[in-house]
Specification:
Elements: H1 6-15, H2 19-48, H3 53-60, H4 64-72, H5 79-88
Helix pairs in contact: 2-4, 3-4
Amino acid sequence: MSRTTINELKNRRLAAMTADERAAFDSTYEATRLAIEVGEQIRDAREEAGLSQRELAARMGTSQAAIARLEAGSVAPTLTTLQKVAAALNLKVAVRLSKAS
C-alpha cells in the first residue's frame, strides 16, 4: 500500500471545500506566503549584518523567540515591527504594491 503525500492530501481537502471555504483558504495562504517571504528577508538581513537572533532581539528590545517567530513567518509583522527591525539593522523599510498576476 502506498503512502498519501502531503500534496495529495491537500488536493483532496481543497476539492472538498465549498467556494467560501476555498476563498478563506486562499486568503490565509496568501497572508502566510507574505509573512514567510518577509521573514526570509529579515533572516537574510540579520545574517548579513553578522548578528544572532538574540543580538537582533536586544537591539529591538524584544525576545529571541519573537525574532525566531518573525523569521519563520509564523507571525505577520506590523509596520511598526518592520521599522524596529530596519532601525536595528540600519536599513529602511520599503513597501511596494504591484498588480496581481
